[in-house]
Design a protein that fits this description.
This protein has helices spanning 6-26, 42-58, 73-84, 104-110, 122-129, 138-149, 169-178, 193-197, 243-246, 260-278; strands at 2-3, 32-38, 61-67, 91-94, 158-162, 182-186, 202-205, 223-226, 230-231, 237-238, 252-253. The chain is α/β, with parallel strands linked by helices. The strands form 3 sheets. It has a 6-stranded parallel sheet with strand order 1-11-8-7-5-6. Strands 3-2-4 form a 3-stranded parallel sheet, sandwiched between helices. The radius of gyration is 19 Å and the shape is globular. It binds NADPH dihydro-nicotinamide-adenine-dinucleotide phosphate.
Length: 279
C-alpha cells in the first residue's frame, strides 16, 4: 500500500513557489493575498490562520480582514470592491461558510475573476467546465496533483466521487474528465452507495461523516482519497475513511491529516502566485 503524502508534496510545491515569489519581488512586485473572514466560526479561523502561515512562509503579503458576524452585505461588498480595484492585491479569498444572513453566491460573484484564487466565481467555474480553467479549484486540483505525482494513472479509470458540492465534487468531476477518467458523482440520494463505490478504481470520499467508508465500500487495489475532516469523541481529527480497515486493501490511500488538506493550501498559494505573475 502506498501512502499518498500530501504534506511532503505540498512542501515541494511551496519550495518552488517561494522562488517564484522572490523573482517577482526582484522586479518590484510584492505578491499579495487578501483574506476576508466574517464571524467567529472556529474552523474558519483555523483555516485562515493556516493560509496566513503559508503566505508568511512563501514571502507572500497577507492582508487579513476580520469582520464581525453581523456585518451587512453592503459593507462586505464594499470591501470586495475596494480589494478588486487595489492594484497591490493579486488574490482575494472570502472564507466560507458566511453567516446565514449573507448571500454567499452574491458575495462570490462580486470578486473580480482575475483575483478569484479559489476558482469560485461563475466566470472561472464556466472556464473550468469548458476544460480551460484559468485558476485551478484548490481541493480538486490538489487531489489530482497528489495522484499524478505518485505515478498513478487516472486516464480510463473509474472515478467515484462521493460529493456534489461546488467546492469539491463538481469541480473535481471537471478535472477528472480533463484527465480522461470515467466519472461518477454520488451523493446522499444515491441508491446503493456501497455498490457504486465498490466499482471505483479511484474513490474520493468527501461527505463529512467520520469513518463512514470501511473496507466494504472499497474494491481491493483501489486508490482511496479521503477529503473529509471530522472530529471524533476525543476531539481528534479523523477522515471519512476508516483508515485502519481500508489501508490493507487499497493500493494507495491518503492519510486524514497530511493528505488532501496541505495540497488544498499549496494550490491556493500557487493560484495566488500565478495571479501576481499574470497581472
Ligand atoms: P458539503 O456538506 O457541501 O457536501 C457533502 C456532500 O456529501 C454532499 O454532496 C452530500 O450529498 C454528500 N453526503 C452527505 N451525507 C452522505 C451520505 N450519507 N451518503 C452519500 N453522500 C452523502 O461539504 P463540502 O463539500 O464542503 O465538504 C465535504 C467534506 O470535505 C467536509 O468534511 C469538509 O470538511 C471536507 N473538506 C476538506 C477539504 C480539505 O482541504 N481537506 C476542503 C474542503 C472540504 P447531498 O448533496 O445530497 O447533500
Amino acid at each position: 500500500m502506498m501512502l499518498l503524502d500530501g504534506k511532503k508534496l505540498a512542501q515541494e510545491i511551496k519550495n518552488e513557489l517561494r522562488e517564484r515569489v522572490t523573482r517577482m519581488a526582484e522586479t518590484g512586485i510584492e505578491t499579495c493575498l487578501a483574506v476576508v473572514l466574517v464571524g467567529d466560526n472556529p474552523a474558519s479561523h483555523t483555516y485562515v490562520n493556516m493560509k496566513e502561515k503559508d503566505c508568511h512562509e512563501l514571502g507572500i503579503k497577507s492582508l487579513r480582514y476580520d469582520l464581525p458576524s453581523d456585518t451587512d452585505e453592503a459593507t462586505l461588498l464594499g470591501l470586495i470592491d475596494q480589494l478588486n480595484s487595489d492594484n497591490g492585491v493579486h488574490g482575494i479569498l472570502v472564507q466560507l461558510p458566511l453567516p446565514r444572513h449573507l448571500d454567499e453566491q452574491k458575495v462570490i460573484r462580486a470578486i473580480a475573476p482575475a483575483k478569484d484564487v479559489d476558482c469560485f466565481t461563475p466566470v472561472n467555474v464556466g472556464l473550468l467546465a469548458t476544460g480551460k480553467p484559468v485558476f485551478a479549484p484548490c481541493t480538486p486540483a490538489g487531489i489530482v496533483r497528489l495522484i499524478k505525482a505518485n505515478g498513478l494513472d487516472i486516464a480510463g479509470k473509474n472515478v467515484v466521487i462521493v460529493n456534489r458540492s461546488n467546492i469539491v465534487g463538481k469541480p473535481l468531476m471537471h478535472l477528472m474528465l480533463m484527465e480522461n477518467a470515467t466519472v461518477t458523482i454520488a451523493h446522499s440520494r444515491t441508491v446503493d452507495l456501497k455498490e457504486v463505490c465498490s466499482k471505483a478504481d479511484i474513490l474520493v470520499a468527501a461527505v463529512g461523516r467520520r469513518e463512514m467508508f470501511d473496507e466494504t465500500y472499497v474494491k481491493p487495489g483501489a486508490v482511496v482519497i479521503d477529503v473529509g475532516v471530522n472530529r471524533n469523541e476525543e476531539g481528534k481529527l479523523v477522515g471519512d475513511v476508516c483508515f485502519d480497515k481500508v489501508a490493507p486493501i487499497a493500493s494507495a490511500i491518503t492519510p486524514c491529516v497530511g493528505g488532501v488538506g496541505p495540497m488544498t493550501r499549496a494550490i491556493l498559494m500557487e493560484n495566488t502566485v500565478r495571479a501576481a505573475e499574470d497581472k
